[in-house]
Write a structure and sequence with these properties.
The chain is an alpha+beta fold. The chain has a single domain, classed as 2-Layer Sandwich (YaeB-like fold), CATH 3.30.2310. It contains 4 helices and 5 strands, in the order βααβαβββα. It has a 5-stranded mixed sheet. A hairpin with a 2-residue loop joins strand 3 and strand 4. Helix 1 runs antiparallel to helix 2. The protein is globular and about 40 Å long. The N and C termini lie far apart (35 Å).
Length: 107
């Protein structure tokens, strides 16, 4: 079984750092748990890149190349190209995700 390379974009890294900093201000252990859970879930993509579901907010615009994993309340967006997985962003699912995605992905 081939393994895909996982690549974090600068935006996704900044998103995750921002979330972890915010959570750590209240509870450092919880921030570590979130980081560990994120690392584990994304690690599974290396063998199963189609594991995430297609982003429904973009699907209605006939855009199918973006997928997501949920680590509630966060949504991790990625795309697969060749044998690489690009982690694009980590967004709080309580926000208006459609606006955020359209602004980020359609520029």
């Amino acid at each position: 079984m081939r393994e895909f390379e996982l690549i974090w974009t600068k935006t996704a890294k900044l998103d995750l750092i921002s979330i972890l900093d915010y959570v750590a201000a209240e509870d450092k252990e919880e921030a570590l748990k979130i980081f560990s859970k994120t690392e584990k879930k994304l690690g599974l993509l290396k063998s199963f890149p189609e594991r995430g579901k297609i982003v429904f907010e973009l699907e209605k615009f006939n855009i199918y190349k973006y997928r997501e994993l949920i680590i509630s309340p966060w949504r991790i967006f990625y795309k697969v190209e060749s044998e690489k997985i690009f982690v694009l962003s980590v967004i709080d699912g309580r926000r208006n995700v459609e606006d955020v995605l359209l602004n980020r992905f359609l520029k």
